[in-house]
Every structure is written in C-alpha cells, then in structure tokens.
Amino acid sequence: MIILIPARKNSKGFPYKNRKLFDYTIDKIPQELLNKVVIYTDDEILVEKSKERELSYVEREHSRDEETTKEMVESFVSKLQQTSEDIVMLYLTYPNRQWAEVEQALETYVSSGARSLLGKKNVTTHPYLCMYEQEGNRGTQVVEHNLSRRQDYPNCFEISHQVCIFNSEEVDKLNNNLYNANTYFFLVSNVPDVDYESDLKGVHAYVN
User: Fold this and answer.
1) Per CATH, is 2-121+157-201 categorized as 3.90.550.10?
2) pTM value?
C-alpha cells in the first residue's frame, strides 16, 4: 500500500494552501504508516518539509491548471517501480478528516473486493431542482423530469475526494475523477474542503 499525498504548488483561489495544510494531514497518519507515505509535489518548500520529516517524495513536473485528477495520478503511477499497488490518495484540502475514517474506507475497499473506492456525501440540493442558465433569465433542466413531490425524486449523492483508494492497474479504467461503474462509493463525514482562505474558518483551531 502507498499513501499518496498530491500537493501542487500553485493554487489560484488560495495561493500556497498546501504548505499551510501539510503538517495537519501528516500529523494524523499513524507513526507506523509514515514509511508508506509518498508526497507528490512540484513545490520546493514541500520537498524540504518532506525531507525534514523523513518522508518519501516524488518530484512532480510543474502542474498545469487544466490537468485532470486522472492525469496527475497517471503521471505518479508511471514513476512507480511496482506493477500493482493499492494507493490511498489523501488530498491536503481536508484538514478535519479523521484517520479512523480512512481506516474504515480501507477496510471496506479490501472486504468488498473493489478495485476503486471514492467518497460520497449527501447532496444539499437535489439535481432535479437545478437548471442550466440560459440567456434572457431563462433556464433548462439539468435532468429533464416533471416530478413535483420531493419524495418521488430518486436517491442521489455527491462524489467526494475526501477519501480515494484505487489499484494502480485500475487507473486507466477510471474517468478523470477516478471512478467508473464498478467503483465502491463510501459515505464520508463531509468535513470542509478548503478551496479558498475563507474555508479555513472552520479549521483555524487546527491550522497554523
């Protein structure tokens, strides 16, 4: 098993956010598993932090804004020496994520025989209520339907990369968000996902 921590340098919404969030994620990983951690980064500061904490790292080519999650993972997998490896991918942008949840997801991944697992969370707005914006303050349904009672809406969920597990040999079968028809979707606790500095309001007590 590899615990992959992608940490790109650039972030337009919140510059250098991964530097700020780095220690909090690492501190939650049990000491006995730190030898399985690999930091994948194009940030020289995070390379130095990895060295200071005696963590393995792989230097990443300068990441493009338009690079997909799958492309990032494919570039990492191409650098591995192993042909088949289960990878637990943890983005740094979930500083309130608890390790017990990661362990539960990993146990589920193994017991279910899945080749990929991705987080899911409950939706706050059902897609049956969503519209595509059209000119002249008009709109068209995202999902075409004529249902009015919410109890008639089908159950749905939102994907979340709070926890993401996959086998390295499965990556080419996954889409750009790392799932396919056979992916196991694991219900996560839906902690804040930090995209902007304002998102730190709920996690300031934990982040330096």
Assistant:
1) yes
2) 0.91
